[in-house]
Amino acid sequence: MSSSVAKGKAKANGTAEAYELPWVEKYRPSVLEDIVGNTDTIERLKVIARDGNCPHIIISGMPGIGKTTSIHCLAHQLLGDAYKEGVLELNASDERGIDVVRNKIKTFAQKKVTLPPGRHKIIILDEADSMTGGAQQALRRTMEIYSNTTRFCLACNMSNKIIEPIQSRCAILRYSRLRDAEILKRLLEICEMEKVQYNDDGLTALIFTSEGDMRQAINNLQSTWSGFGFVSGDNVFKVCDQPHPIIVQAIIRACLKADIDGAMEKLSELWGQGYSAVDIVVTIFRVVKTFDEIPEYTKLEYIKEIGWTHMRILEGVGTLIQLGGLMARLCKLNMKPELFSI
Amino acid sequence: MPPFSSSQSSGSKPNKRLKPTSLRTTNLNSVRNDAGPPSKKFKPMPSLSQPPKFIVPGNSNLLSSSQSNVKGKGKEKATSTSRAQGNENDQLWIDMYEPTAEEDLAVHKRKIENVRSWLNEALDGGPGGRLKAYRRILALTGAAGTGKTATIRVLARELNLEILEWKNTVDESFAGDDDHDDEQGQSSWRNQDYEGLMQKFQAFITRASTCRSLFSGPPPQSQSEAKPSTKTSSTSSPQLNTSSKRRIILLEDLPNILHSGTQQQFHAVLETVAHSRDLTPVVLIVSDSGVRGEASDDRMASGRGRVKETVDIRTALPSSLLGSQWVTEIKFNPIASTLMTRALQSMLTSLSSSSLQHPSKETLDMVVESSNGDIRSAIMALQFACGARQPSFEPQGKKRKKGTTGNSRALLEAVTRREQSLALFHLMGKVLYNKRKGDPPGSSATKKDIQRDKELDAKIKDPPPLPSHLQLHDRRSSRVDIDAIYGDSPIDSSLYSLYIHQNYTQFCNEVDESEAISEWLSWVDYSGGEAWYQANPHRFHLLTMGTLHSLPSPVTRRSQKIFKPEFFDVLSKHRECEDAVEDVLEWTRDASQHTNLLGGFSRSEVATELGGVLKALDLTGRHTVPPSHRRFSLLPFVKQTNSTGIALNEDDAGATEAPDDVPTPPRRASSVDRSRESGGWLEEDDIEDF
């Protein structure tokens, strides 16, 4: 999450040479053309950016797929130099209660800004699904009254957390998850520009750890590069501080053979390296769901057990015993039931 | 900000609040200054029955601005054709094409008629002139984008009414300077006793019925004698009463009634409105916020202490007014697809003269079907999708055009919001048809499809063998790529399980298969935990795999249809019943004060045991039992043979069938409706009884 904090500040001191920008900022697309994925929707936004008269929009989708970036690009391309006075941006860290909606947003909406025809002031509400119901209610009439001078752009993770009346006033764009190939392409571009040395294993590891989140992938790339000077699989997992999938695969293989001792040994090794229970269980899940040595039914039962353990860990019991219990249940599934009859 | 120095000097205290009212009102204020704006006088709210007869600058803009707003809209229609060229780039279509006459409204005729007759009765007293006292508050409810506000505006124009709309004002301490330090702000608030929003609201309601806006024309009665000279106060002053007949107050931008203190004050004001004959009738517009589709909704519904997070008619109106004779509720249904198509088409014909790209009929149909009866979102989607022309596609011939429609189709899929979009349909189909490697091709499959399947199968590896004791669970490998559908899924896992739950039975052959799926559903539900942070994060994968595993392979094709979950209907019915129980409980408490018959009932006793008594009391007709009890005391468990859910179709034709004309859920709804009409809607004949 540190990246999102840095987001706002970065533009201002971009010129400083000594200070190295986070790559997420440095290579953040500044025009819609550069945004990766969701081509149809972006195409449409380009038309709007050129012709103006932007409707109210809601962009929804997973983290790190370019929602906020698209809105910023759109606003920049629409308003150009007038960006500063023509845009009000509020995100979840800003106070966004009902009084802010009533006051700050309305005051901005009433403000006179001279803009070319077809251009409007833009209010960007990032992470809009975290707004309270009351604040959203207060927003709905504001959107309507000032729609001839001000347009709203909302970004959120789940559009169903936005109340119906607001959804009704907006065009809703759903961004889908980025494909691995799309992330890979961007990573390669950045590697090229930053002269990063890497191997294929390293890139695979970056994509594995990012789970479709471009921001995370780029952050991990930068951390690995500045930390180790070479992007290899091992280095990436060290930087991301995630258990190495190879070890986890070994654990799963042991479980498939009902070899509880082998599984526990590897598990203790991970535990000894200081990984938390959540880290371990998350990695186990990621490995299991793509591991093709497991038959479908076993996979299903495994995910059931993993999910159960994950839930327990989130509830607060992140102990080695929980993970051990998981190992035992995974092993038992592959043993003959007669062995357990008394 | 210097503008109001004159009003400040005449007021007893310099009042910071008054500063940043919009410039528009400056001249008004200077005109009205002689009316005497001592802000001190209205601060302790005078009782509403004796409204103060002055206009205070700080609030006068409430009256005037809404007025000018109405005017602006009136003008719009007249000039819209002439300036369509110049200005279309500047406005939202929903503003440009706001309906101005009844025939433009896509609302069902009967609803319009209901609203019109209410307005007539409220203002003129209906045929006998006596209904006026009971037409105090009109509540328009219904989903967003069903034309509630538009109907009122159109009718107001038709009946020549003046709409006074309440808008929550900007708080000046914010408006002036964003970065005033807190101490200063605090002290300035304390020093000049701050007038809260609610006081302003009360004052607004009172003033709206007594004062006239300078811009309003002379009242219609006086038109013959007094010359229609505009903007003079001379004609208006002696005719305060006549003019107040022709106006209504529109409450749409409600104060924050989720805050209990504000809610109480709001309710108090509404009660005064209801019981007084002098105040202007109020039209209250409450959009259903709808269920947010979260897993927590059902837990909240089951728990007693349901937290009100949404604004609905029950939070907006005090319980004493709900269902009373002073309040009329008119519920707007989602707009029927036929009506909406017509409206959109007529909108597009007025557009076609201009330079815009004309969307195909196919596109239009898709917009209509995906909007789910919400005309505003339909127009929004249409503007977004077809608003500006795409020069790159323009010059090409037919070949290219085909590409365009495909493109716009994909685009609309991304744009439209409702869950029944194509993406969801594909998701459900992929999961529920459970295609596996080596499935025989379907009867309708083309050669291309077969070829594609073959290629796909070649890529899928055969699964490693299961241990012997699990042979029972051996399946051929699935063609479904779970990670891919997870990435594309338009819905979250709780909604996803609702869909599976609604539909799985049609796809099973044996009871065992159903058992297995429901087992997985219940596991997923159970492992959800109580709060979001405990939820099992792998529910989507688990449910998908579990369903795929349990379904027969191949699934027998018997033209299954995918339905939308009935959960939300049931949930809202559940809430209605809960509210009805609450009504009856209230009533028993009241009744127990007069007689010893009733009283001391618990909620569950009311729900389970009192039903018979209530029905009996209903028959005798002597007691005024709240009619809402029929919602829980009359439960005809009539279930049609087939699922009553709404089909989720690839072209989703059935979804938006005119809900106005078809009394869909057969008996229950009609009985409730009838009861509401006979009990809730007050007819002329009933008046003698009160």
Give a structural overview.
The complex is a heterodimer of chains A (342) and B (690). Chain A has 342 residues and is of the alpha/beta class. Chain A is built from 17 helices and five strands. In chain A, helix 7 (133-145) links the parallel strand 3 and strand 4. In chain A, helix 13 packs across helix 15. In chain B, helix 16 packs antiparallel against helix 17 (375-386). In chain B, 47% of the residues lie in helices and 4% in strands. Chain B is built from 29 helices and seven strands. Chain B is globular, with a radius of gyration of 30 Å. Chain B folds into four domains: 22-98 and 349-416, no CATH class; 103-332, P-loop containing nucleotide triphosphate hydrolases (Rossmann fold, 3-Layer(aba) Sandwich); 424-550, no CATH class; 567-633, no CATH class. In chain B, the strands form two sheets. In chain B, strands 2-3-4-1-5 form a five-stranded parallel β-sheet, with helices on both faces. A two-stranded antiparallel sheet of chain B has the order 6-7. Chain B is mostly helical.
